[in-house]
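ok new one. same drill as before - structure tokens go in, u give me an amino acid for every spot. 359 of them this time. try not to just spam alanines like last time pls lmao
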């Protein structure tokens, strides 16, 4: 078994006792840090940064030098798989991700490249190995992927979308084609996450960023079903430890009971769901991750501390909570406000784990 100096993140995901609530932050390596912006400039572009092992490792480590985070997350992008499938990912300034090709017909689907994660996304595995080596057993490393539905939205729309007209149009009007694409993506994601685990990821998160755009029934059919398909294929253990799986559906609060039954160890919550209510509803089944509104980080350190206290109190005593934001940290946030956030969790949460502290 690999020895971790700090394993409270992995223990909390499995609802085992911890001395305090672990904390990490979605997009913790990112544009709010001046050192990240400098490294990205050095890399030349965002994609070049993802594909440069040394620099991807560097930006993963940057927030860990500033803050006592309980987990590192691989620096990469959710759209690596569609890129490897041959769609040609690029980033338009101010517009976000774009693809040179889309998948809108049977012929488009058949034209996708064959996919083997260890070969086609070797640069991601190289980054995982480098980060694990750099972490040197200090804290665990999280691997991740986009969910099949989320990947499909970008592949069909050709980029970001406000109304999801094309992807929903296919789901409702050509469900067989949509299910073929989602099945292909689910198996690709399972292969990708399994490869990350073999390379050294100690937990994985599935980012279902656009699952919340669906109706209740469509969510189960087109999103949740395929995340279950992924989880069923993942290695249960690595290095003699359970590899926990986190599922995060943005705007998925109304489907918590269904999500809790998908096979994941932890359900990520956005800020629109009360964490105490969620714990009452599904906390006996899974751990919970979240869920401070990232915009609170624009408030004063005193207000940030109050919000952390409110969320800790709402969750209550005992393990099974990983503190996080309800979505990724935004670029304009002051790094000192992130410091106030993390320090508040570190200082205020031990009171909710006193049985462990006294043991």
């Amino acid at each position: 078994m690999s020895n971790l100096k700090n394993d409270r993140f992995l223990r909390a995901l499995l609802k085992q006792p911890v001395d305090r609530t672990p904390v990490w932050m979605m997009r913790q390596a990112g544009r709010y840090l001046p050192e990240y912006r400098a490294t990205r400039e050095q890399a030349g572009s965002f994609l070049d940064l993802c594909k440069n092992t040394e620099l991807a490792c560097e930006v993963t480590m940057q927030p860990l030098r500033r803050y006592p985070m309980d987990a590192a997350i691989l620096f990469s992008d959710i759209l690596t798989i569609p890129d490897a499938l041959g769609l040609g990912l690029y980033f338009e300034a101010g517009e976000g991700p774009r693809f040179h090709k889309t998948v809108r017909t049977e012929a488009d689907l058949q034209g996708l490249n064959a996919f083997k994660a260890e070969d086609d996304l070797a640069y991601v595995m190289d980054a995982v190995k480098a980060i694990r080596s750099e972490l040197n057993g200090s804290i665990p490393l999280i691997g991740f992927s986009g969910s099949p539905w989320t990947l499909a939205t970008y592949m069909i729309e050709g980029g970001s979308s406000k109304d999801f007209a094309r992807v929903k149009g296919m789901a409702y009007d050509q469900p067989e084609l949509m299910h073929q694409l989602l099945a292909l993506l689910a198996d690709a994601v399972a292969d990708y996450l399994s490869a990350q685990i073999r390379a050294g990821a100690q937990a994985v998160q599935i980012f279902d960023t656009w699952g919340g755009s669906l109706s209740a029934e469509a969510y189960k059919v087109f999103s949740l079903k395929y995340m279950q398909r992924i989880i069923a294929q993942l290695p249960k253990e690595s290095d003699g430890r359970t590899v926990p799986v986190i599922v995060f559906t943005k705007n998925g609060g109304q489907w918590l009971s269904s999500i809790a039954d998908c096979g994941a160890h932890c359900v990520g919550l956005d800020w629109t769901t009360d964490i105490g209510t969620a714990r009452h509803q599904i906390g006996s089944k899974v751990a919970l991750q979240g869920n401070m509104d990232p915009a609170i980080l624009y408030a004063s350190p005193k207000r940030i501390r109050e919000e952390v206290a409110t969320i800790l109190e709402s969750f209550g005593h005992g393990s099974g909570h990983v503190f996080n934001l309800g979505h990724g940290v935004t670029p304009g946030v002051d790094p000192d406000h992130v410091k106030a956030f993390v320090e508040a969790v570190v200082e205020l949460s031990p009171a909710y784990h006193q049985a462990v502290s006294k043991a």
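The two ends are 24 Å apart (CA to CA). and btw The CA atoms of residues 23 and 42 lie 29 Å apart.
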